[in-house]
Amino acid sequence: SSVTMSAVPSGPSTAATTTTTKDAFSSASSSSSAVVAKATSDSSSSSDEGSSISESPSSGTLALSSSVAQFRQRSNLSQLENYRQQLAALVDSASPSNRPHLEVVMADALSLFERFLRSRRTPLEWEKISLLPEHMICLHKDLESPPTKDTATLLSKLAVLKLNGGLGTTMGCTGPKSAVEVRNQMSFLDLTVRQIQHLNSVFQCQVPLLLMNSFNTHTETMKIVRKYTSHEVPIHLFMQNRHPRIIKDTLHTMAESIDSPKECWYPPGHGDVFPALYNSGLIDQLMAEGKEYVFISNVDNLGATVDLKILKHLEDCGAEYVMEVTNKTRADVKGGTLIEYEGKCKLLEIAQVPPKHVNEFKSVKKFKIFNTNNLWVRLDAIKRVVESGALKDMDVIVNLKTVEEQRVIQLERAAGAAIEFFKDSHGVNVPRSRFLPVKSTADLFLAQSNVYVMKNGELMLNPDRPFNTVPIIKLGPEFQNVHNYLERFNGADVRELDHLTVSGDVTFGADVILRGTVIIVANHGCRIDIPAGSILENKIISGDLRILDH
Question: Mutual orientation of helices 99-121 and 68-92 as an angle, nearest 10°?
Fold first, then answer.
């Protein structure tokens, strides 16, 4: 067993040092400038026709100003150069030993900014969108399991990578979300290690676990994983990039030096996984160990376990990239979906959809599937697309936030958006059971309930549940904090529950049974105590109900 921790990427991209920061950004800036210039001038004659000022024909034609397109082009080039200079200043503020690594990180930030400027000028054209051909979405039920005798060999080619950059702040927790206890006093990370340990033990293989941390989670995660040193799971840590937040009004970096407070920085989305994995040096290391594939998923998706059918499919079909998708429900209407765009398989996120087409995007009838962010990718293909620079054209997500009373921009990438740069990429439509994210205490309620049973760290639908679907859970703001949620619930039998809505000052006693549809609403200033042992079936409770000890 081993636990490898690397906080600073040291792969091929950072091998060479440069004499000056100006040199480090000059090539990136010049190539970006050319792309921006092309993108902003391509449609000048058609979109800005008649926008320039000229004299009347009788006095001759004399252009007095540049067209609107030329104005935008010059503005974009100026903004790009200003941003490059700010990034160069950030690198110069670091110690000489840290500059080579930071030059790589800031070159990536510059590339994202250039893509952002370009996308503002050339947005996605809705008319070019079409549904994927049927052959580009395989059905999981049609895939074959590998023969038992071949399973160990197949697993020996696999690495598992969990995206571990998020904090548990939305549920009132501090520290990495992966440390939140989910079930039986086991955290997300505990369950992941347990799953891989079981695989390695049963099939006598060495599937390693990779954790991509952000600067928010790296230090704590390094401490946490020490408890796994005696487990049969090799663990490797690496950290994704840290980019400066951008002030919206000025497009200047919020950070003034490399030592600026944490609030001035952000991790640029899980699409950073490919360059960060490459820069860590782990791709070459894994390939030298005989690994060929990596299974990437969010650490808080309890359904994202190693699937031998998909692994066999990946090897048999020769695809470089396979995305797990599942059928949309009304709860998933904002989820990204796969489309065909200009002849390529592409991920379409709701942020890219023109406002007048948002309702069409949300339609379950038209766009029937969405991305689970469970991704299966060839390691050699990741190396190729990163080294070729193809990922510089990945779609950019513009995330607006308010930090210290300032409106800021975070430019991010989604890992699923890389699908268009890999050969023979396609989707596999998987059961809903492979998408069990825990984003809220309502999700946590389900994960902890007897709707599921746990085996070898994996959650499975309870065979005693009479339905093959999970209940809908809606909890009010009084339950959003994990601490408050745990104080208000004392366990409940929900095997026959369809829908639960709880709002207001409500607490549950022990051994409560909930069936059918149960709605409990304590009005403002009121409190409802559900007595221990209560059986509620298709009930609506509102008002005030106090149970006091005599």
Answer: 160
513-525 pLDDT, tens digit each:
999 999 999 998 8
Kindly compute the dihedral angle of the four CA atoms of residues 425, 428, 432, 434, in this order, to the nearest 10 degrees: -70
Instruction: Provide the token pair at 70.
Output: 């030329």
CA 379 to chain centre: 19
| Number of Cα atoms under 13 Å in the Cβ half of residue 5 | 13
* Residue 297: both structure tokens together: 């998923």
Number of Cβ within a 10 Å radius of residue 178: 28
26, 32, 183, 355, 461 from 214: Cα distances, Å: 28, 27, 25, 32, 32
The confidence score (pLDDT) of residue 108 equals 93
72 falls in which pLDDT band (50, 70, 90)? confident
Length of the chain: 550
150 contacts: CB under 8 Å, gap ≥ 6: none
Which token pair is 107?
A: 């070159």
Instruction: Measure Cα distances from 185 to 2, 447, 449 in Å.
Output: 24, 12, 13
Q: What angle do CA 450, 453, 457 make, to 5 degrees?
A: 135
Phi-psi region of 387 (alpha: psi -120 to 50; beta: other; left: phi over 0): alpha
